[in-house]
Amino acid sequence: MSQVYIITGASTGFGALCARALAKQGHTVFAGMYSHDGNTSKYEEDAAAFAREHNADLRTMTLDLLSQASVDAAVKHVLDATGRIDVIVHNAGHMNYGPAESFTAEQYLRLYDVNVVGSQRLNIAALPHMRRARKGHLVWTGSSSTYGCNSPYLGAYFAAKAAQDSLAQSYAAELTAWGIETTIVSPGVFTKGTNHFADAARPGRPDVAQEYEDGPTKGLGEQTMTGTAALVPPDADPQIVADALVELAKIPRGEKPFRMFPDPTMGGAHVAAAVVDNNKVNMYRRMGLLEYLKVQL
Questions:
Q1: What does the alpha-carbon distance between residue 110 and residue 117 come to, in Å, rounded to a whole number?
Q2: What is the arrangement of strands in the sheet containing 58-62, beginning at the earlier edge strand?
Q3: pLDDT at 208 over 80
Q4: Is the Cβ–Cβ distance between 122 and 228 less than 8 Å?
Q5: Hey, how many other C-beta atoms are within 10 angstroms of the C-beta on 35?
Q6: Angstrom distance (rounded) from CA 165 to CA 147
Q7: Which candidate, 25, 252, 31, 56, places its Cα nearest to that of 137?
């Protein structure tokens, strides 16, 4: 059955790939567009060309997750056009690269604003409509780092992704009774095919970053990048994240998996996450909340 999707951060990277793959499968996809320089025309033109070529219902819209007004307008646009929202993909994210100490508090706040609070703004706008419909699906694009390896120089990003994972878990339990399912999709590392590293925020305290480069951690940044690249198989393709969402869409309502790990590095995050999730099941059983781990149809 064709579903109506909102995908955030769909200008490039995972978001763009997922939007195209899902639209090609016959779903109606509203691709949220945002650019650091405010110009999304190229991304909109690329999406429109794809839609024409594949006869796909891929639509673009401005979606600035830092603005509640922008988010509200985007949700209204979707509802006016289709009358419903079936799936929200919380995909937008921003990365940093440099020693944790070398970023300003304001940079940390902005990173959390994009990766965590932005999701909340969209939930505020869209969930009332999904709850009234008593059905829906929230998909969160997380990171294998939350239950895998936290390498140096990406501390603020990893922390924000872990916060998003925790938020998604709480939402999952609160929404099952409303008929809304949750899936956390945690990709592994991809050094090609996305703009994550190219667009990563640089230290706002460059003098501190230089001290790390000149001190006993000299070369750590380069070693981290080289080591990260070595983890990734040469044929790793971020398309597998989009393929995961396509397969997820085919799974019947009530049977959606809580987690998916499209991870070419095989970093073992799925093993650690399984332990955490099993602990949650045990605690919910002891608290008398077990029914809230299963969506109510």
A1: 9
A2: 58-62, 28-33, 4-7, 87-90, 136-141, 180-185, 259-260
A3: yes
A4: no
A5: 15
A6: 10
A7: 252
CB 146 within 8 A of CB 186: yes
Task: Tell me the longest C-alpha to C-alpha distance in the chain.
Answer: 59
Region 130-135 average pLDDT: 98
3-state secondary structure the chain: CCCEEEECCCCCHHHHHHHHHHHHCCCEEEEEECCCCCCCHHHHHHHHHHHHHHCCCEEEEECCCCCHHHHHHHHHHHHHHHCCCCEEEECCCCCECCCHHHCCHHHHHHHHHHHHHHHHHHHHHHHHHHHHHCCEEEEEECCHHHCCCCCCCCHHHHHHHHHHHHHHHHHHHHHHHHCEEEEEECCCCCCCCCCCCCCCECCCCHHHHHHHHHCCCCCHHHHHHHHHHHHCCCCCCCHHHHHHHHHHHHCCCCCCCCEECCCCCCCCHHHHHHHHHHHHHHHHHHHCCHHHHCCCC
Give 195's pLDDT tier (boundaries 50, 70, 90).
low
The single residue listed with the structure tokens 């001290």 is 211
* Nearest residue to 186 (alpha-carbon basis) of 64, 294, 271, 85: 271
Write down the pLDDT at residue 165: 97
pLDDT at position 22 is: 98
Query: What does the alpha-carbon distance between residue 278 and residue 200 come to, in Å, rounded to a whole number?
Result: 34
**Are the C-beta atoms of 265 and 189 separated by less than 8 Å?**
yes
Strand partners, 183: 139
Please write the tens of the pLDDT for every residue from 210-238: 999 999 999 999 999 899 888 888 888 99
Give the pLDDT band (50/70/90) at residue 39: confident
